[in-house]
From TrEMBL, chain A:
This is Cytochrome d ubiquinol oxidase subunit II. The chain crosses the membrane at residues 6-28, 79-103, 124-145, 165-188, 200-221, 227-246, 253-274, 302-325. It is a multi-pass membrane protein. Its main location: membrane. The keyword Transmembrane helix applies. It comes from Rhodococcus tibetensis. Belongs to the cytochrome ubiquinol oxidase subunit 2 family. Keywords: Cell membrane, Electron transport, Heme, Iron, Membrane, Metal-binding, Transmembrane, Transmembrane helix, Transport. The keyword Transmembrane applies. It is found in: Cell membrane.
TrEMBL record, chain B:
Residues 473-497 are annotated as: Disordered. It comes from Rhodococcus tibetensis. This is Cytochrome ubiquinol oxidase subunit I. It holds the Pfam family Cyt_bd_oxida_I. Belongs to the cytochrome ubiquinol oxidase subunit 1 family. It comes from the Bacteria. The keyword Heme applies. Keywords: Cell membrane, Electron transport, Heme, Iron, Membrane, Metal-binding, Transmembrane, Transmembrane helix, Transport. It is found in: Cell membrane. The chain crosses the membrane at residues 20-41, 53-71, 91-116, 123-144, 186-207, 235-253, 349-371, 383-404, 438-459. It is a multi-pass membrane protein. The keyword Phosphoprotein does not apply.
Amino acid sequence: MGLEEVWFILIAVLFTGYFVLEGFDFGVGMLMPVLGRRKDADGDTRRRVVLNTIGPVWDGNEVWLITAGGALFAAFPEWYATLFSGFYLPLLLILVALIVRICAIEYRGKIDDDTWRRRCDWGIVFGSWVPAVLWGVAFANIVRGVDINAEKQVTSSLLDLLNPYALLGGLTTALVFALHGAVFLALKTADDVRVDAVELATRLALPTVPVAGGFVLWTQLAYGKGWTWILVVAAAAALVGVIALTRAGREGWAFALTSIAVVASVVLLFASLFPEVMPSTLDAAYSLTIDNASSSPYTLKVMTWAAAFLTPVVLIYQGWTYWVFRQRISTKHIPPSIGLPLGRR
Amino acid sequence: MDTLDVSRWQFGITTVYHFILVPLTIGLAPLIAAMQTMWVVTGKTHWYRLTKFFGKLFLINFALGVATGIVQEFQFGMNWSEYSRFVGDVFGAPLALEGLVAFFLESTFLGLWIFGWGRLPKLVHLATIWLVAIGVNASAYFIIAANSFMQHPVGATYNPDTGRAELTSIWALLTNNTAMAAFPHAVAGAFLTAGTFVAGIAGWWMVRSMRRAKTATAPEAAKLEGDARTMFRPAARLSLLVVIAAGAALVFTGDVQGKLMFEQQPMKMASAESLCHTATDPDFSILTVGTHNNCDGVTHVLDVPFVLSYLAEGEFTGVTLQGVEDLQAQYEEQFGPGNYRPNLFVTYWSFRAMIGLAAGSALLAVAGLWLTRGGRVPDQKWFSWLSVAAIPTPFLANSAGWIFTEMGRQPWVVAPNPTGVDMIRLTVDQGVSHHSVWTVWFSLITFTLLYGALGVVWFKLIRRYAVEGPLEHDAHPPGDDEEPEEPDTPKQLSFAY
């Protein structure tokens, strides 16, 4: 196996890590208002329970995207350049959403004021929904192919990117991430928030299974390879299993299954792409492949050593963080707000 | 304006914005780690309170720093795709390393630090903030190594078959002498920023507490004076010593960097001095007047002899320096027709602003260390004014320095290395993406408005928390005086969003 293949796999690993980890972050953000809307309990405390399940880890999860971007730049500069200049407006929207989300999460508790908190909640919800949908649209379009001319420029318009397959992809990622988040919440919370999260997860699974199943099947039939049928089956089986396991109170296993569903889907997308990285719909000769888009052998070799040594270290300490904060949270664990009132003392 | 201009404005605005926040993060993380270490070692509660107080300001700043940094990672591909194709083989490596080595480290351990109070053992918790401090500085190293390649490309060769620069030695890239000078210079600037920030706030609080004590009731007055004496004074003195050390490091590394620039990017330095024509032992210019974007309108008003020769080569006489017009003629011969002059006005004045603005921190350091000598605690009103006024100066100096560095390299995006591979060079118009001008306008406006709004929120939060001072909530370390709880009541989180 050449280093180009290795790096194709590593890029896929980084994006898979990003979608597994940020998938439930997005889900948590998307579902925060739903789980915090109950009348009988203090809504704000419930929203804080939801938010704090990802409190110590969301920032580290997001770095998977930054590193994936950096790795793409280092290993496949042509892919990086064509992708990000070609998908300009969707990427701009994703960046805006991420910026808003970061600040909303961090600043929410800083001021003790209902209007302030409501605005931050909007930021979190917006910042979670937009990337959850748009990453699906973007990756579906990468697999489907866009108009790439001889100069490696994407000439597809924004409307071209909103084709049925890509829209189904966006709907799929949104639903899968929401389900992934709901199961994560069921795993990480206690008492009535947990009960509601279980309920929400089972309800979300109902539309998710057919929609995600449809998207995965479409991908397989239109772009898949023989062996990727395994992934289709794995993703579908995992999603179906989620319902039963969540109902039975086995949230840990249910979370493992939604993670498997995300992994299988992302791997399916990358496997369908291989050995191309951005197929051109204009002429197959214009397609970017792992060979014509990659860096020089020396760069790939250096980066391989770096990744081989550093990735396990990162996995160990990130895993340790999850272990440190493994306890379930309930409304009883949430301390009173220590934010300052808006005006000066 | 065409796509190139809008793209340049966009990169400038977003980068300068990012670098308002970055130096405070880089400098403040180690300072907070030092404060927490003092608490862990001495057990004195006021160091704990200081850690929490400045920790809150640090987190407010960190959030926006991260948010604005994400854009940078993708902007190369979005707006500068041709540049990315040309140098990706080289430039991508330090960026990916930055993610793998530094970003993961800082983000993961910052989460552990924020939420780990009272949950992690004291020493493990202390280690988390030190790892954050290492992470933020490591990220500075990698990104500056990447930037230094654009200023002085090394460790790469040109492949005529692919038409791009290709990495030949990661070691040469990471030990680029430009990076070896720029990295400590930027870090010293960051320490100056954070030192001035902490000293400014602590100085203001010292005066405020002492003056309030005069009109307060006896127990309240004792508490206020106690805070000023045992908490804000040590914080101010610690950070002022950091300012002194950082200032010395800035002068030294700045001098090294200047000498390298005269050698590697003579056009940048000629432009910084408004030195239009090649001369032997030219004077150092303090003030010029004129329209100034070109050599025709420049009149030197105030000059100092010997300084410039020393800055350039470490000799007082016998130094010949090339002028802008002569370099222009030389470049035209070398690289073909074109305008190879940077904006003379911006380079000239940003260079002077960078150096001149350091006076704010220097003034605060001298006044602060003098007023706190021998156990004294100042209550002079003017000192509280000076403390507050000094805070923005290093931020502005950082911006001025980067504006000088980056605009001085124009029109190049990869400046040719006079002793390197000749073909590794790219002008900005060759590096820009082929977008319509409206596309780039749209993103420019979006980012500017969003950043503007968030900047206001950031400033208000920082001010609000600085004016509030150390919180009652943080008066005692967790686990210090907790009453024994009922076994079945869950322990509340020490921190929750």
